[in-house]
Amino acid sequence: MRKQFEEELQKKLQLLSLNEVQQGHLLHSLWPRNWWRPAGLWWKKRPDDFPSDLSNEYWVIPTVFSDWTDTMKIVKEEILGPIMPILTYENVNEATAQANGTSLGLAEASF
């Protein structure tokens, strides 16, 4: 099931431009160093087929990760990038504690 989901997701992914170079640097600095980085996930320079007027922008593929923890900096802070961590919980109390365990009003969805 996961492989099928990943294949369907790859067909629909689009590149998104980040608003500022500083935002690109922030995302790179928050990226957990021990996480596998798929080839082509981050682009600092444009691929050859991008228009030349886009050459100075940071591009990133929308990314969904699982197995992150709510103690990781990239989960706790507003990163303003197309990255969605999936956090698990055992019960409603734990989910509520996770949602309330941040000083920022971060967006979330619970299923």
UniProtKB/TrEMBL annotation:
InterPro entries: Ald_DH/histidinol_DH (IPR016161), Ald_DH_C (IPR016163), Aldehyde_DH_dom (IPR015590). It is an enzyme of class 1 (oxidoreductase). Residues 52-108 form the Aldehyde dehydrogenase domain. Signal peptide: none annotated. It catalyses: an aldehyde + NAD(+) + H2O = a carboxylate + NADH + 2 H(+). One of its GO terms (molecular function) is aldehyde dehydrogenase (NAD+) activity. Its EC number is 1.2.1.3. Belongs to the aldehyde dehydrogenase family. This is aldehyde dehydrogenase (NAD(+)). It comes from Fusarium fujikuroi. The lineage of its organism: Eukaryota, Fungi, Dikarya, Ascomycota, Pezizomycotina.
